[in-house]
Specification:
The chain is of the alpha/beta class. It has three domains: 9-201, ANL, N-terminal domain (Rossmann fold), CATH 3.40.50.12780; 275-345 and 348-460, ANL, N-terminal domain (Rossmann fold); 466-605, GMP Synthetase, Chain A, domain 3, CATH 3.30.300. The protein contains 21 helices and 26 strands. Strands 7-6-5-3-4-8-9-19 form an eight-stranded mixed beta sheet, sandwiched between helices. A five-stranded mixed beta sheet has the order 12-13-14-15-16. A four-stranded mixed beta sheet has the order 2-1-11-10, sandwiched between helices.
Length: 606
């Protein structure tokens, strides 16, 4: 376990860039070739960037926004800000111009780092209304003639001159950072209302890194592949600050579509991802197996069965017998090794967060010897509250609280947490802060959960998502959604039923699979709208849902559903940037279909 005794992220940056000076810190693609930057080279660039910001007039506690895709430049901009004692305001690059305007305006940002032409063109028309913004710095050096826009190269040149004039200032400024200095403002992409600016300090992030490293075994030999947005608290803490703090190498995926290929090229040992990633990998594996010969299919499922039996024996403290051990060796050679190659061949484990992971998918990967450590947290908690330890993963839970984190369950089942990981508060919103942090320092997560006899935390659902049927039954939609989303026929699902007589659902089909099936059946249709209304498709989804609902109580089962012709998306404001469904938006948008579904059921009852 690496030593981690820093008081600020600034101190951490100074120390690791000296200790690991000649070791690769970042990997990134230029054209088709992977390039590297050492810790020394990154330090040099960050010093110039930070000094350049100082030359532009940046002051302590000023807010500086970053709106860019993941890259080594994003990471360096973040370190440049914090080393100048400024505050990084993270903005998802997928946000619309209107959403960007709101965050930049609300945060009172003085400077903006834009990743490229696309982000610059989103921000430029907003400048007349963003009166506090003084300069935009374009990270990929895309140049436009405008008095308020400069390239990264121009900032570096400005910084070089400033540094020559003030050679001691960079280190002195970093050493003056205090644990209670504000490090970042992360705007929650909440599923309701305007986003709130979560204020996290150096103490918050340092405490969360230290706590995570007591559970997760990682050091300078590790290679991270970063593809989750750095504007997200999970990737920012784990794949950015923690990775740097232990001296690991961080490789940046070109984009979300290249991750599968990037894994085989950089051979990561550690990766953070959200459940949607594992769901897509799982679906691809299952599809390829389904299309293979019966001999290969039978071998594959024979191997997975052996892996599951071995895993269950281990978790129950039983020895794996000689017959099963032999099966596992054969399974490893013929099946599991090929699956492991798909994720780079050297992966020690994934860490999953951001949303609940389906137990079925978790067990599938564990059976193949691909470990997923499911954890839990919120932006307001820096973010990690708990995580499963590698030596004792408990499927269906989010692990035990970190050693420096307190957790308790309130009388109504809500999860409360207290400790150095809890945010300072919401920016310019004391009322909202008091609503979630009580006088004793407990943060109210809004999640419902339980703690078992071994201290493992399990999440039932979001408190506000719990459905209460008109018959008074409490139904958590999350378990049903988790089961159904593992189906090859379902892309997205929202379970409905609050104050209703029964549970229903809005379902987005997995159209790639559905269209292939329709072609096999020689079904004729013009578009998705016609496809989902075919009686054969209705029969298919009736079967899929009936089979998935077998393990649920009668009052929990989905009785009716509507198939939708298109996916929920960020652009249509139906998903948050972290891909959580905005239930209220979806229910409002499809209210006519929901009402028609319940009306039809009522008329059928007579």
């Amino acid at each position: 376990m690496p030593e981690f005794s820093y008081k600020t992220i600034g101190e951490m940056f100074l120390t690791v860039t000296e200790r690991f000076a000649d070791k690769p810190m970042f990997g990134f693609k230029v054209g088709n070739v992977w390039q590297e930057m050492t810790f020394r080279q990154v330090r040099e660039q960050v010093e110039k960037m930070s000094s350049g910001l100082k030359a532009l007039g940046l002051q302590k506690d000023d807010n500086v926004a970053i709106i860019a895709q993941n890259s080594h430049r994003w990471a360096m901009a973040d370190y440049a800000n914090l080393c100048a004692r400024a505050v990084t305001v993270t903005i998802y690059p997928t946000l619309t111009a209107k959403q960007v305007w709101w965050i930049v305006q609300h945060s009172e940002s003085r400077f903006i780092f834009c990743g490229d032409k696309e982000q610059l063109e989103k921000v430029m028309p907003l400048l007349p209304e963003l009166t506090r913004v003084e300069k935009i710095i374009v990270l990929d050096d895309y140049k436009v003639e405008h008095p308020q826009v400069m390239t990264l190269s121009e900032l570096l040149a400005l910084g070089q001159t400033y540094r020559e004039q003030h050679p001691e200032e960079f280190v002195a400024t970093v050493k003056s950072i205090t644990p209670d200095d504000l490090l970042t403002l992360i705007y929650t992409s909440g599923t309701t209302g305007e986003p709130k600016g979560v204020m996290l300090t150096h103490r918050n992030l340092v405490a969360n890194i230290w706590g995570s490293l007591q559970v997760i075994d990682a050091d300078e030999r590790d290679v991270f592949l970063s593809f989750l947005p750095l504007s997200h608290s999970f990737e920012r803490m784990a794949g950015h600050f923690l990775a740097t703090g232990i001296g690991a190498k961080i490789c940046y995926a070109e984009n979300i579509n290249t991750v599968a290929n990037d894994m085989t090229e950089v051979h990561p040992t550690l990766m953070t991802a959200v459940p949607r990633f594992y769901e897509k990998v799982y679906a691809k594996v299952i599809d390829s197996i389904a299309a293979s010969s019966s001999v290969k299919r039978n071998l594959f499922w024979w191997a997975i069965d052996a892996g599951k039996k071995a895993w269950r024996s281990k978790i129950n403290g039983k020895a794996v017998g000689p017959v099963l051990s032999t099966r596992l060796k054969v399974a490893e050679k013929l099946v599991f090794s090929k699956l492991k190659e798909r994720v780079g061949g050297h992966l020690r484990f994934f860490v999953s967060g951001g949303a609940p992971l389906s137990p079925e998918i978790a067990e599938f990967f564990l059976a193949a010897g691909i470990f997923i450590l499911e954890g839990y947290g919120l932006t307001e908690t820096s973010p990690v509250i708990s995580v499963n330890p590698l030596e004792r993963i408990k499927i269906g839970t989010v692990g035990k609280p970190l050693p420096n984190v307190e957790v308790k369950i309130a009388a109504d089942g809500e999860i409360l947490t207290r400790g150095p990981h809890v945010m300072k508060g919401y920016f310019k919103d004391e009322v909202a802060t008091r609503e979630v942090i009580d006088s004793a320092g407990w943060f109210y997560t809004g999640d419902i959960g339980t703690i078992d006899e071994e201290g493992y935390l399990a999440i039932t659902d979001r408190k506000k998502n719990i459905l209460v049927t008109s018959g008074g039954k409490n139904v958590a939609p999350q378990p049903m959604e988790n089961v159904l989303v593992t189906s090859k026929w379902i892309e997205q699902i929202v379970v409905i039923g609050d104050k209703r007589k029964f549970i229903s659902a809005l379902i987005v089909p997995a159209f790639v699979n559905l269209e292939a099936w329709a072609k096999e059946k020689n079904l004729e249709y013009k578009d998705h709208e016609e496809l989902i209304n075919l009686p054969q498709v209705k029969e298919l989804y009736d079967r899929v849902i009936d089979e998935a609902m077998e393990g649920f109580a009668q009052f929990e089962k989905i009785k009716k559903y509507v198939l939708l012709p298109r996916e929920f998306s960020i652009e249509n404001d139906e998903l948050t940037p972290s891909l959580k469904v905005k239930r209220s938006v979806v229910e409002k948008r499809y209210a006519h279909l929901i009402e028609a579904m319940y009306q039809e059921a009522q008329e059928a009852e007579g």
